[in-house]
């Protein structure tokens, strides 16, 4: 039976509210890297993960190598959802043909990945991403999945679990995230899951703004292990071009993420609620 992380197992009281504020998509662009680094140094964001196949990977890898004190995961990547900004696998496209389009880039949608991706090629490519990260000097604390594509099917989840076991790293699992990508099938003996995952939403961004949504999330947290997923970047020309015709998780959204989670008032709010920070490194050590 799938288990959840128990607070006592993590060295905390059962009534504690544990929160990881985790920045996805480092390596995606120069803007993403700069905002992620600044957010980490501000101290509220305490975890991030890197997309190895992206053009700006090496910039972020150099930061990770020289700043091992920050919690850093590998954002296992099988998709490229952007209209004009493209990237593909670490391996030659000829070695993983089910993972690429006619031009050799990753597919743009979960539906296409679910339909076409060969699990053996998925594992081959993701092992190559992990090995490249290790070669670059990154000391990963966990594995997670871009667009949660590794939750699309139980066959892909099996690959995810096997990679975690092989590299002795915790993998990011959550029941609601699995259901959000359409996987409602029973998944026995998969691993240990995070209690709750929180993400902003597009309607909130366009109406009252993400600041109000994040304040509501923080105010409503209950005892347990929570992860709040953000995507900090600057709303500059580079990021606008990356996110062309893609307002959901677009440049405006990413600037809002950066602004709220570098605001000293957010740190005050967390302190007022006695919310305790936790990182994947702590989870990793508790499972040894």
TrEMBL record:
Q: Which residues cross the membrane?
A: none
Q: Name one Pfam family in it.
A: YdjC
Example GO biological process: carbohydrate metabolic process
Supply the alphabetized keyword list. Carbohydrate metabolism, Hydrolase, Magnesium, Metal-binding
* Signal peptide range in chain numbering: none
Q: Which InterPro entries match?
A: Glyco_hydro/deAcase_b/a-brl, YdjC-like
Q: Name one GO molecular function term.
A: hydrolase activity
Coiled-coil region(s) = none
Q: Which cofactor does it need?
A: Mg(2+)
Q: Which domain of life is it from?
A: Bacteria
Q: Which PANTHER family match?
A: CARBOHYDRATE DEACETYLASE, YDJC DEACETYLASE FAMILY MEMBER
Name of the protein this chain belongs to? ChbG/HpnK family deacetylase
The record lists the organism as Arenibacter aquaticus
